[in-house]
Design a protein that fits this description.
With 309 residues, the chain is an all-alpha fold. Helices cover 71% and strands 0% of the residues. It has one domain: Orthogonal Bundle (MetI-like fold). The chain contains 13 helices and no strands.
């Protein structure tokens, strides 16, 4: 009899333990069991570590022109790999490996700042549209529709071309505007769902002010899809920034170590002389973009309530 009761009790205990886990804990558990999530997390983690500690681990000064005397652009000579210079040097005789490492820091800075600015602007627009509705929602969403109707790269090129003197900040601003309509649409849709939820209706019936309802109930419960999209947008921001630099709309400073600028110079000027100058930053951009994409897709699937077991 006791054995039978214990067998019946065991599944109930397991069900109670599983139901007691939060959505975040369940999502983390699923991501730790996913090879795709682990691969994306490892790539992203290594990239962030290299970017943060790049000045410390770079073997040489990325701005020092060590082998400039051996560079002969007129004769098509740019020194390649040799002892002390595993990836060779660039057209100014600077160590390519050190510039790649320091370039990771600038690339991460561009991607993070562009994503953060895009999230903030998108949250403001989507939050206002979802909170007030009516004519505010109509006006803001029509503005978002106009931005969505323009291809992302064309929109970034148009914004970057408005500035008389391109710089790193013009690239960040241009790339950030690409994500604004996406974040605004996501947050507005989530807040519309929250507006009709039971806890919001209960707070409204109790006389809670609209500001408190928006900031305490609707907004915190609507940010999940925005956070997931921000992870995916990081990969897009890095690619779009590289594209702008490749088209000549990025920072014109030749001393700045940034993967998009390095790819632009290597592919446009020295592809016939030394194609490795284009291959190295291109491979780095592809791997990092892949890491953020895998991590973002895994996070989206892990947070999807339909995938809960």
């Amino acid at each position: 009899m006791n054995t039978l009761l214990n067998k019946k009790k065991e599944p109930i205990d397991k069900l109670a333990a599983a139901s007691g886990n939060s959505l975040g804990r369940e999502a983390l558990r699923r991501m730790l069991r996913s090879p795709v999530a682990i691969t994306g997390g490892v790539i992203t983690g290594l990239f962030v570590l290299l970017a943060v500690f790049a000045p410390l681990i770079a073997p040489k000064d990325p701005f020092e022109r060590y082998l400039q005397g051996e560079v002969a652009l007129g004769q098509g000579i740019i020194p390649g790999s040799r002892p002390g210079y595993p990836l060779g040097v660039d057209d100014f005789g600077r160590d390519e490996l050190s510039r790649l490492l320091v370039g990771a820091q600038n690339t991460l800075l561009v991607g993070v700042l562009a994503t953060v600015i895009g999230v903030l602007l998108g949250v403001i627009i989507g939050g206002l549209a979802g909170a007030f509705g009516g004519w505010v929602d109509t006006v803001l969403m029509r503005l978002v529709d106009v931005m969505l109707s323009v291809p992302s790269l064309l929109l970034a090129i148009s914004v970057a071309a408005l500035f008389a003197k391109p710089s790193q900040w013009t690239v960040i601003l241009a790339v950030s505007l690409i994500g604004v309509p996406i974040f605004a649409r996501l947050l507005r849709g989530s807040m519309l769902v929250q507006r009709g939820s039971d806890h919001v209706l209960a707070a409204t019936s109790l006389g809670v002010k609209r500001g408190a309802i928006v900031f305490r109930h609707m907004l915190p419960n609507s940010l999940g899809p925005v956070i997931v999209q921000a992870t995916l947008t990081l990969a897009t921001a890095i690619l779009e920034a590289a594209a702008l630099s490749f088209l000549g709309l990025g920072d014109p400073d030749p001393n700045r170590a940034e993967w998009g600028i390095m790819l632009s110079k290597g592919a446009r000027q020295f592809l016939d002389v030394r194609p490795e100058l284009a291959y190295y930053p291109a491979i780095a951009i592809i791997i990092v973009a892949l890491g953020f994409t895998l991590l973002g897709e895994s996070l989206r699937e892990a947070l999807d309530p339909k995938n809960r077991r």
